[in-house]
Design a protein that fits this description.
Layout lengths: L25 H43 L4 H19 L8 H9 L14 H4 L11 H16 L9
Helix pairs in contact: 1-2, 1-5, 2-5
Length: 162
């Protein structure tokens, strides 16, 4: 075969260059936004939980320090009751005005055993006003500490009081 000199010299087909890696396609941008947003949300929630836990630990340490600062059992019960009222007031403003059986019912919350109304926690009602406690105040103080921790965690919504 002879080439016709009138035809220009034909060249092979040139492919375009391969696409570069930057800038990425819109789908990759969307994926990056989702990943970064998810990581930011995860980090924020984890930071909030850790902050809340540190605050709860600090408040429990203050509870223990307040009880350790007094020697007499009636004074310990008075301090525990005051701290419980402060913690309850954070979630339920009406808790500050509760007295007597209503206060014990609030402290019982959703517990079917009613440890404050019918149990050792009843000492919080008038134990602070007794010159001498006939029985040991330790069970009532342990109940008060446990309920204080629940109130700090925000589980007071189960109590039925708003």
């Amino acid at each position: 075969m002879t080439m016709n000199p009138a035809l220009p010299a034909l060249h092979d087909i040139h492919l375009p260059p391969a696409p570069g890696w930057w800038p990425p396609a819109p789908g990759w941008w969307a994926l990056m936004v989702l990943v970064v947003g998810g990581l930011a949300w995860f980090g924020w929630t984890r930071w909030q939980v850790r902050r809340r836990v540190r605050t709860q630990e600090r408040m429990l340490a203050q509870f223990d320090a307040a009880l350790a600062a007094v020697v007499e059992p009636p004074a310990k019960l008075a301090a525990a009751s005051e701290l419980l009222r402060r913690a309850a007031r954070c979630d339920h403003a009406a808790a500050a005005t509760l007295v007597g059986e209503a206060w014990l019912d609030f402290l019982d919350g959703a517990d079917a055993d009613k440890p404050f109304s019918r149990g050792a926690g009843r000492a919080l009602l008038d134990g602070a006003f007794r010159p001498h406690l006939n029985d040991d105040a330790t069970p009532a103080l342990e109940l008060a500490r446990a309920r204080f921790a629940q109130l700090l965690r925000g589980h007071s919504a189960e109590s039925g009081h708003a």
